[in-house]
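Exercise 7. Predict the structure of NADAR domain-containing protein from Oxyrrhis marina.
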Amino acid sequence: PFYRAKGPWSAFSNFHIHTPFEFEVPEWCRPDGFPTTARLQFAEAAIMLCKAALMQDRATFDALLCCETPADAKQLGRCVEQFDSDLWDAAVCSVAAAVVEQKFRKVPGLREVLVDSGSKLLAEATRNDRIWGIGIDVDDARAKQPAEWRGSTKVHQ
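Solution. The predicted structure, encoded as tokens:
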């Protein structure tokens, strides 16, 4: 298990700051007139870009292009206009897959981190997140026991 940008598996966190890469906004979530790519240095911004694009919120999309920290991106994502939870719920796993795939394929050195993880089961460990994480803190013994996990761990499905 990992938590945010801490420890040996921090590269798997959406808050991990890495070399910028050209994120291709998936066509299926990008309205006409929105940029097709964005140069990003953390996955949280890519996820929130997709969220803003799906909801056709160009102002938030543009603001996300300029955010400097993952926390800023997360906060902007909470402010997406015309948010449709059913639409987001239907798309979020595809968004996560697209973001993670591009991040590990395009950022130098991250492919090797992924390969080096071998057959380990990777999951974000925090009691504060049952959607993207396991709902248990990283230092809790249950974090190493998937049967004890309380979250949906969408990023790892």
